[in-house]
């Protein structure tokens, strides 16, 4: 079997500092018979044990959506990508994120090379609110042979944003984790006392960590909450905890690399997932389930698909609903253990090898379609 040459990348610094970077590293590590060139932004974390055969730091300075220089940024990236295509001669391009500057650059430079684009969630949220992001998304989708979304909810959302012109290109490839590496704890959860709760993820408005803090002020027991993550909402969250008088029961810790986060899961009783509006997949909730933690989650359409009956839903953005769900988790130990067992079974459905196999199959189909 010949080796498939893949050109891909994300215009973010080269480090396992966000879900997208961790996911792609896992997926390409699990893909057989590939030679992957990954484009990224400096700086490059020298400690990152990435799986890519070549890691290329782009030279053009990044510009965000909505900035007048965004179009110039994409044009500069396009020139870089054209040069890299001439040098690396890829069989296929995987455009990560439907609209980050690198993806429209891939679309413009591809020529006859097939493009598979991959939605990651933040790109879809941006396209909901910023016209420039929606235009970029449409350009990338229009240039793609296949457009991958991690669940049907996000696929339908992309379809609406692109005015149903590319429905046939959309396909669902669930995300995954290296399930075999999960560190499942084995200890009884017989106490009905206060719970040790964990929330982990980027601290932005959509992740709605504030719902967990406000819920803590409404629970019938003095549960404790640890928030692990970084982001623009941190100072607001700290102030809100002080204003509500629960700051003594809330601990804030900075972002942790996944290996360290996974070791910390064993210290907690329940994982709290609080996204308010749109969630691509909820990978960290699956990680928590794979480690034996029951999950309380915001009842969003995409999360219903990912977790379903293996988690305890509450009304998104409603602290009282979340408080009731947490108290129920504390009071009913049999139900809590049942959710932990169901979560372990659910997490096994999302092994990264399945993600990699589906991605490899679509890649082979896209290449074959060009060659015939």
Care to describe what's here?
This protein folds into 2 domains: 4-176 and 351-371, Rossmann fold, CATH 3.40.50.2000; 179-350, Glycogen Phosphorylase B (Rossmann fold), CATH 3.40.50.2000. The protein has a 7-stranded parallel sheet, with helices on both faces. The longest helix is centred in the last third of the chain and has 20 residues, at 352-371. It is globular and about 65 Å long. The two termini are 18 Å apart. It has helices at 19-30, 70-88, 102-109, 122-129, 131-142, 152-161, 209-216, 234-243, 258-264, 283-290, 301-306, 319-331, 333-347, 352-371; strands at residues 4-14, 34-44, 54-57, 92-96, 115-118, 146-149, 170-172, 196-200, 224-228, 250-253, 270-273, 295-298, 312-314. Helix 1 (19-30) links the parallel strand 1 and strand 2. With 372 residues, it is of the alpha/beta class. It has 14 helices and 13 strands.
How many separate domains? 2
CATH topology of the largest domain: Rossmann fold
The H-and-E topology, N to C, reads as EHEEHEHEHHEHEEHEHEHEHEHEHHH
Report the count of strand segments.
13
Please outline the major beta sheet: 7 strands, parallel
What is the name of the CATH superfamily of the largest domain?
Glycogen Phosphorylase B
Q: Return the structural class.
A: alpha/beta
Instruction: Describe the global form.
Output: globular
Would you identify the CATH architecture of the largest domain? Answer: 3-Layer(aba) Sandwich
What's the total helix number?
Answer: 14
Distance between the termini: 18 Å
Helix content: 40-55%
What Rg is obtained from the alpha carbons, in whole angstroms?
A: 21 Å
Q: How are the strands of the largest sheet arranged?
A: 3-2-1-4-5-6-7
Strand content: 15-25%
Uncertain runs: none
Average of the residue pLDDT scores: 94
CATH class of the largest domain: Alpha Beta
């Amino acid at each position: 079997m010949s080796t498939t040459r893949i050109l891909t990348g994300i215009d973010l610094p080269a480090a396992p500092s966000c879900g997208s970077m961790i996911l792609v590293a896992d997926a390409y590590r699990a893909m057989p018979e590939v030679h992957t060139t990954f484009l990224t932004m400096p700086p490059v974390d020298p400690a990152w044990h990435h799986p890519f055969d070549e890691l290329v730091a782009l030279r053009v300075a990044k510009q965000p959506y909505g900035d007048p220089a965004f179009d110039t940024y994409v044009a500069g990236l396009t020139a870089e990508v054209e040069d890299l295509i001439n040098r690396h001669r890829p069989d296929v391009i995987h455009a990560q994120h439907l609209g980050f500057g690198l993806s429209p650059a891939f679309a413009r430079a591809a020529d006859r090379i097939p493009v598979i684009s991959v939605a990651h969630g933040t790109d879809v949220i941006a396209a909901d609110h910023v016209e420039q992001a929606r235009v970029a998304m449409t350009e990338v989708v229009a240039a793609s042979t296949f457009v991958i979304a991690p669940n049907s909810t996000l696929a339908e959302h992309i379809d609406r944003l692109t005015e149903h012109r590319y429905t046939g290109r959309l396909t669902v490839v669930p995300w995954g984790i290296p399930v075999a590496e999960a560190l499942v704890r084995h200890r009884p959860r017989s106490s009905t006392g206060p719970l040790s709760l964990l929330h982990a993820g980027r601290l932005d408005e959509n992740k709605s960590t504030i719902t967990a803090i406000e819920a803590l002020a409404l629970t019938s027991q003095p549960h404790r909450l640890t928030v692990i993550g970084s982001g623009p909402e941190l100072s607001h969250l700290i102030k809100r905890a002080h204003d509500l008088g629960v700051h003594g029961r809330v601990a804030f810790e900075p972002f942790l690399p996944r290996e360290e986060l996974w070791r910390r899961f064993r210290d907690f009783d329940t994982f709290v997932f609080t996204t308010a509006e749109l969630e691509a997949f909820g990978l960290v909730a699956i990680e928590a389930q794979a480690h034996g933690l029951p999950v309380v989650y915001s009842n969003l359409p995409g999360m219903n698909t990912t977790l379903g009956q293996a988690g305890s839903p509450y009304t998104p953005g409603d602290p009282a609903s979340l408080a009731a769900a947490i108290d129920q988790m504390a009071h009913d130990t049999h139900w809590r253990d049942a959710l932990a067992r169901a979560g372990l079974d659910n997490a096994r459905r999302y092994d990264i090898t399945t993600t990699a196999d589906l991605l490899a199959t679509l890649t082979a189909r896209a290449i074959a379609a060009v060659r015939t």
